[in-house]
Amino acid sequence: MMYVTIFLVAFIAFALSMVCGGGAGLLLIPVLGYVLPAAQVPAALSVGTSISAITKLYLFFRQINWHMVKHFLPAALLGVLIGAWLLSYLAPVYIELCMALFLVCNLPSVFKKPSTVNASQRRYSTHFLTFIGLLAGFISALTGAVGVLFNGVYLRYGLTKEEIVATRAANEIFLHLVKLCLYAWFGLLTHEALYVGLWVAVAAVAATYVMKYVLPKISIRIFSKVGYGAMVLSGLILLNSAVIRIQEAHDPNIHLARVSKGYDATFNWDDLIYTVEFKYGEGFEFERIIPFAQLDDARQAYVHAEDIGADKVVIEKVYSMKKISYEAYFYDSRNQLIKKVKFH
User: Which residues of the chain have pLDDT under 50?
Assistant: First the structure.
């Protein structure tokens, strides 16, 4: 049943991507995350999107803008090599979080009136296209999809609907094939990822053939609006997915409390605790827990002298605008604070 759901969601996502100028991969990342480990999602997406790109090239080959491909693709291939290598060391969820925030920031473009600037004035320099290619390849290797992330570049370059679909496919086909080889090399293209990717591929091919007859009937103005709308929607979905996964992995939380002469905000991340304290007349202080062993011999001796038989001692390093100090908290067996001392 889960694979039928993946097929249906992939069909809808790729059908929408034909109208949006991309975005299927970003819409599918949260769905595939339920059936695959996070590091294998990019590989599964690349299987589906590479076959989808081949289909688009077959149907729209004459609409390819080779000027963009010439300057975009070589740099993108270099970005893929760097990104695929880093995927073994980086957590993709943080890249997804940054992408989500960028995509959501395109909300004003949904309501913005169409520009009257002609295509020749909108064209970017070759150096900018090269930079965009490098960035697109890098992010694509880390997440498996760039989708609508760079949709604005194609729209502002003055391409028609069919040219955007064809040029994106030409730019991405080699990226996906290289990524698949690299994923296989790094052990990320598992049998399960390949199987899920083939389900996505079948849905993508079906959607491409259906939308080939719908695309010519859509105006470029609607195409542009839907494209930016898809960027925002993809960003919201990706943001929700990234926040949930970060919450599950690190259990971050913030606690704000009013204290004597000010406010106290505590941020927890895994076993780390950070505190920002504001007091009237004293300003802001930043506090973090440090191991007892980080204190020098004199400060350790002072803490031992102040100890009244506590079961636990917590040391905080305090940063203020004017100085750095330390605080020692002494707790009993019931984890109740019995004494607090501040020293320099």
Answer: 116-121
